[in-house]
Amino acid sequence: MGHVHRYASRLAWEGSTGEGYDAYDRTHRVTTPPATPGLKLSSDPAFRGDDALANPEQLLLAAASSCQLLSFLACAARSRIDVLAYEDDAEAFMPEEAKPMRITRIVLRPRITVAEGTSVERVMRLVEHGHEACFVANTLNAELAIEAEVHHRG
Question: Burial level of 22, CB count in 10 A (0-12/13-18/19+)?
Fold first, then answer.
């Protein structure tokens, strides 16, 4: 068997649920050693969380978006494609009628800026290769769609 990459996180919460669902604080802290500092998280405000803090569903979406970026950039660099900028306004959808309730669809909308003269078709193929290589996308069972735009900068 080959090498296994291992990842660690540590989560800590303190409080009391003794007063019921409506009363306990959802705020908790996550660290991902050796990275510092940790993240202060809560639940989605729909589930009585703090809207000033990120929630696990947002982190899942951010992980998918980040992984696509990194996988795409690796493909582009190996292909000697000059990518100058990449922005993604991603969305995740979690319908309440889904049983069990879960994120069922993720849409990534990268806007990719490349050097003048770069083939848009080639960049779009690299977006797909990046998706195929994305560890997070390969782990998820939610539908993951990519609606990429490519722009030139000269």
Answer: exposed
